[in-house]
Amino acid sequence: MRRGTSWLLLAVILALLVVIVSDVSPQSQAAVPEVYRDTITLRATGEAGAATGTATSTDWIRGNIRAVHVDYGGSVAGSTDITITTTAPAVTVMNLLNTATDAWYYPAVQYTGANGAGLSVYKAFPIDDRLAINATESTSGTVAVITVFYGD
Predict the structure, then answer these.
(1) What are the extents of the domains in the chain?
(2) Confidence at 142, pLDDT banded by 50, 70, 90
């Protein structure tokens, strides 16, 4: 084999290796879980500091709750309590007491062992339901806009 031909053959082999190694076909990529969001506006009626209200999520929420953002109205009482639960059976997802500060939350459930004792392992909150959101000790009007992020 001639010297020039061997260099050409080596260059072709290297080019093929680069193509094989850099193959990024959809089958070779890891699946990215889908994340959905549901935005719920919570309104209350009643006397200042004693107003109450209830809202239900518009979407059926299926998968794991990844995050919850609570954006309080501009003049909401600092005594406001917000409770987020599943509807059937009613299981508390979050209970925010005496606050009117916008914040992000990441609800989780604690694993339990075979005897029911809690382990120090937590996982995103699993759900296949709608959410019921209640406000107490608040101000009349829009209490908060709550955005729930969920998915696989």
Answers:
(1) 31-151
(2) very high
pLDDT of the residue at 28:
52
Helices (H) and strands (E) in the chain, counts: 1, 10
How buried is 150 (Cβ within 10 angstroms: 0-12 exposed, 13-18 middle, 19+ buried)? buried
**pLDDT tens by residue, 45-96:** 999 999 999 999 988 999 999 999 999 998 899 999 999 999 989 999 999 9
Q: Are 122 and 44 in contact (CB under 8 A)?
A: no
| Rounded CA separation 151/117 (Å) | 28
Lookup: tokens for 47:
């006397």
CA angle 127, 131, 134 (to 5 degrees): 145
Structure tokens at 115: 């005897």
**Distance between CA atoms of 141 and 44, rounded to whole angstroms?**
5
How many CB atoms within 10 Å of residue 127? 20
User: Could you give the C-alpha distances from 98 to 48, 74, 114, in angstroms and in order?
Assistant: 14, 15, 36
> Class of the 31-151 domain?
mainly beta
